[in-house]
Write a structure and sequence with these properties.
With 782 residues, this protein is mainly beta. It folds into two domains: 712 residues, Maltoporin, Chain A (Beta Barrel), CATH 2.40.170.20; 49 residues, no CATH class. It contains seven helices and 45 strands. The protein has a 22-stranded antiparallel β-barrel. A five-stranded mixed sheet has the order 3-8-9-6-7. A three-stranded mixed sheet has the order 14-13-18, with no helix packed on it. A hairpin with a 3-residue loop joins strand 10 and strand 11. The longest helix is centred in the first third of the chain and has 36 residues. It is globular and about 90 Å long. 45% of the residues are buried.
């Protein structure tokens, strides 16, 4: 039934694609005609409120590069995940191989949490609370008020983990009015989607809101060994409570958030080792991974947030934010991307964090506004990696690619599409420092693991304020001081099966990958300062220019390598210079920003031997341009778009004048050019019925998946066409939509290299093919 349904939907969407060109001309022509026939109107963009700085402010008051994506934009363009969201924000790139391992990139910087002490470069906030660790950062985009993306160092305002920028999710708060919405949808690949929210007053002073989501989709990659890969199976819920008495200075909001992902494994696919049909074309979306093994990506996140405020007057108040989050993320994957049971890996992560912030928001005479406060943050994180190498197959791969002289001349790794193990007596003794006439067996079953736990904490004091020097000029400055403590323990062990023969070659016997160790706890403390300063000049009451400097910092990293050696990586610092122009006027909004950034002790990563390690490259430079705009021509046509140019490169020489690693290379996951174009075109069929078409086209130029810029581990330029066609019944509050993502069936990657690259067999994760579906939304009393 699934294949019949997919065939029907494919046929429908082919007709839908063909109709888009005709619809575009029809909608635009109708919009122009209706504008000419109507009385001339002045169309104003709604005031855009942001909360990234000093409480609630208008976007024009912010002297920094920031993009706000509203709930209306999310709905009209059917933005259902963070990859789609990135297209609406210049300078943001998001690639998600799995919910527990997203790549969030702002202005060329992404995070590599190799060690549990490593902190992200891009902060993710939910209602002003950090959920930045990778295993918590991907949240479902439902019942959102807006999403604010701040670009450039945000350490003064947001603290740790925001060296490159911050993504702030603001969910809808309860109000005193009964209402809500219900959404149901379906599509190809067995897509099923339910979403909804209910808002209700409890008393005159208390309001509640309950929201939830269930989103399911079969995997778009077939595993010929059984099942599918790269699917989606998410359940989420959110409960919010607001205490807002009319005659009291005290207000409070409580949010309880839960999300569970129970997904199949990631489709790590090899372009060298064929599937059981002899194919190496990953864009045929068929993989043959190890038989009789369950591959999965499971994640569970639970958190509570209490925000209490006491107002001394309308513009001055004290606030307390208390939060606790815990999460688990488990995955199992086939590291070689083939039927050969060579690299069988599991990763298990656990984390919990507590944050308490006390803040004073002040405003004196409408000229001096700002915040002052203190916070405490603590997290406990542990990672466990379990490795089950099939050494008869792993030895075959390693020797074929790195030591071919040791392989029999007629040896083939795959025969008739099936993996061919080496003989159980294949390793000559002289390779292991033993007599040359000895040969040792290769075990078929071996289990080892590596466990690392960290406790990270920070005490912060911060101050940030703006002063209106004269009516048109305002000066903003801020500073944050941090005292942080990291502690880490590590142990590795041989768990089960036979002792590793290859471990004699790697020097980690009886293990192959992780040398058995039991490292004692190590603890380090650090002091840090981040700061910013800037000027804003109001050209008039609808436009301004601004310039600023900010210092970002990524903290030290404590780590152990696969031999159990301890290392402390120096903190990465970023000096960022920004300038921009912003105008919001009569249906028109335009934002332009320039930036220039200098890095010291740049924290990159590399495969060294059999280690995936963080290291300091030292110097790097980046600069770029970001543009975004929106224009409401009339009630019937709204065009929007953005563009980003990003030059990123590791300097040729380090601070000592010596050649450095990755010299001249581009930062990973960073296209030089990217843009999005789209519009909303609507016509009124009657007083009650309106049809709206929202197509978007996003494009990214070539980029690499690793800082080493290895050939083949890269993505060529590509573009994605998405569209949403909606029929609105105004009086009934109903909207019926037909949507499609990647309508042209573009072939692109969301991951490349990965663990297999270390053994000569890099793996690749294909992006989603054409996704289509329908949805029905009913909004009541809204």
């Amino acid at each position: 039934m699934k294949f019949k349904y997919d065939a029907v939907m494919t046929n429908v969407m082919c007709k839908f694609k063909i109709s888009i060109t005709l619809l575009l001309s029809m909608f635009i022509s109708a919009a122009i005609a209706q504008q000419a026939a109507s009385e001339e109107k002045v169309i104003e963009l709604k005031e855009i409120v942001v909360t990234s700085q000093h409480g609630e402010q208008q976007l024009l008051d912010i002297p920094a590069s920031i993009t706000v994506v509203s709930a209306k934009t999310l709905e009209s363009a059917y933005v259902s995940d963070m990859e789609q969201l990135s297209g609406f924000v210049s300078g943001l790139n998001v690639l998600v191989q799995s919910a527990g391992r997203p790549n969030l990139v702002i202005r060329g910087l992404t995070s590599d949490e190799v060690s549990p002490t490593a902190q992200p470069r891009v902060s993710v906030y939910l209602n002003h609370v950090p959920i930045s660790r990778a295993t918590m950062a991907v949240t479902e985009l439902y019942d959102m008020e807006r999403i604010e993306v701040m670009k450039g160092p945000q350490g003064t305002l947001f603290g740790r983990g925001s060296q490159a920028g911050a993504i702030s999710f603001i969910t809808k708060k309860p109000t005193g009015r009964f209402g809500g919405y219900v959404t149901a949808g379906g599509g190809n690949y067995g897509m099923t989607h339910f979403e909804g929210a209910l808002n209700t007053p409890v008393t005159k002073e208390i309001s509640a809101r309950v929201a939830g989501i269930y989103s399911y989709r079969d995997g778009y990659v077939k595993n010929t060994s059984g099942g599918t890969l790269n699917d989606k199976n998410t359940l989420g819920g959110r409960f919010s409570l607001s205490y807002n008495p009319q005659n009291s200075n005290f207000k409070a909001d409580l949010t309880v958030n839960y999300q569970k992902d129970n997904n199949a494994g990631t489709a790590f696919m090899s372009k060298i080792l064929p599937n059981d049909k002899g194919e190496t074309d990953i864009f045929k979306y068929e993989a043959t991974l190890d038989k009789d093994k369950e591959f999965y990506n499971k994640r569970e996140v639970f958190g509570t947030i209490l925000n209490a405020r006491y107002y001394t007057n309308d513009k001055n108040y004290f606030s307390s934010i208390t939060s606790y989050f815990n999460n688990s993320a488990d995955s199992r994957f086939d590291g070689d991307g083939s039927a050969a049971p060579a690299i069988d890996m599991e990763e298990r992560g656990r984390a919990n964090q507590f944050m308490q912030e006390l803040r004073y928001n002040f405003s004196y005479g409408n000229r001096f506004t700002g915040i002052a406060g203190a916070s405490f943050w603590r997290e406990n994180v542990n990672h466990t990696y379990t490795f089950r190498p099939g050494e008869q197959y792993m030895a075959a791969m390693m020797m074929q690619f790195f030591m071919p002289e040791l392989i029999p001349p007629d040896y083939q790794l795959f025969v008739n599409g099936k993996p061919n193990p080496l003989s159980s007596l294949i390793v000559p003794g002289h390779l292991l420092g033993l007599p040359s006439d000895m040969e040792l067996p290769l075990p078929s079953y071996h289990v080892e693991d590596n466990y690392t736990e960290a406790v990270n904490s920070a005490y912060d004091l911060f101050f940030d304020a703006s002063y209106q020097i004269i009516p048109k000029i305002a000066f903003t400055a801020g500073v944050r001081g941090t005292y942080e403590t990291f502690s880490i323990i590590n142990r590795a062990r041989f768990v089960d099966g036979e002792r590793s023969t290859l471990g004699m070659m790697s020097g980690r016997f009886p293990n192959f990958f992780f040398k058995p160790v039991d490292n004692p706890e190590r603890e380090e403390t650090f002091l840090a300062l981040t700061w910013r300063a800037g000027l804003k000049y109001d050209l008039d009451n609808r436009s301004n220019v601004y310039t600023g400097y900010s210092r970002g910092r990524r903290p030290n990293v404590l780590q152990y390598d696969s031999e159990g050696k301890y290392e402390v990586i120096e903190p990465e610092t970023l000096h960022s210079f920004d300038a921009g122009y912003r105008i919001i006027s009569q249906g028109f909004m335009f934002d332009a920003s320039l930036y220039y950034q200098l890095y010291r002790n740049f924290q990159s990563w590399k495969w060294e031997g059999m280690d995936y390690l963080q290291e300091n490259v030292d110097k790097a430079t980046s600069y770029g341009v970001e543009l975004s705009g929106r224009y409401l021509l009339n009630d019937y046509l709204n065009v929007f778009g953005n563009y980003a140019y990003a030059y990123t490169a590791f300097d040729d020489k380090d601070s000592a004048g010596k050649p450095q690693l990755n010299a001249g290379n581009s930062f990973r996951l960073t296209p030089r050019n990217s843009f999005l174009l789209g519009f909303n075109a609507g016509i009124n069929v009657s007083n009650n019925i309106r049809i709206v078409l929202t197509p978007t086209y996003s494009w990214k130029s070539h980029f690499f998946f690793e800082d080493a810029n290895d050939a083949g581990i890269e993505q060529n330029a590509y573009g994605l066409l998405n569209a949403n066609l909606s029929l609105h019944f105004k009086r009934q509050g109903l909207t019926a939509s037909l949507f499609g993502n990647n309508l042209t069936g573009e072939k692109y990657l969301i991951g490349a290299g990965n663990m297999g690259a270390m053994f000569g067999v890099p793996t690749f994760v294909p992006g989603a093919p054409r996704m289509t579906g329908v949805k029905l939304i009913w909004k009541f009393n809204t």
